[in-house]
């Protein structure tokens, strides 16, 4: 199963329910629907992103969720953030669309 989407390619029938660790402090993902001439771009500063192709919803959408840590981080401790009382924690997430 090839889940490497670092270069643009069709999702087609690929089933995705996976968490990816991002390579940069700021990442951007663009999803394009060629027949509708529509694209949606998402960007975030989070280290992880969950992508789900919606098999249980007859593939009527694509879920993209920025995450500060991977699944099971409470047990593994990987990239787990400790939120301290009175201390701020901020994240950046932006969504924008475009018709072509």
From TrEMBL:
GO molecular-function terms, A-Z: carbohydrate binding; isomerase activity
Domain of life (superkingdom): Bacteria
SUPFAM superfamilies: Galactose mutarotase-like
GO BP annotations, alphabetical order: carbohydrate metabolic process
Pfam families noted in UniProt: Aldose_epim (PF01263)
Family annotation (InterPro entries): Aldose_1/G6P_1-epimerase, Gal_mutarotase_sf_dom, GH-type_carb-bd
Residue stretches spanning the membrane: none
Signal peptide: none
Protein name: Aldose epimerase
Organism whose genome encodes this protein: Escherichia coli
């Amino acid at each position: 199963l090839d889940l490497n989407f670092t270069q643009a390619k069709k999702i087609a029938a690929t089933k995705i329910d996976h968490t990816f660790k991002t390579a940069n402090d700021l990442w951007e993902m663009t999803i394009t629907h060629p027949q509708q001439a529509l694209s949606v771009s998402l960007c975030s500063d989070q280290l992880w992103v969950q992508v789900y192709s919606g098999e249980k919803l007859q593939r009527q959408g694509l879920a993209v969720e920025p995450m500060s840590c991977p699944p099971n981080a409470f047990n593994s401790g990987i990239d787990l953030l400790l939120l301290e009382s009175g201390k701020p924690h901020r994240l950046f997430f932006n969504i924008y669309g475009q018709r072509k």
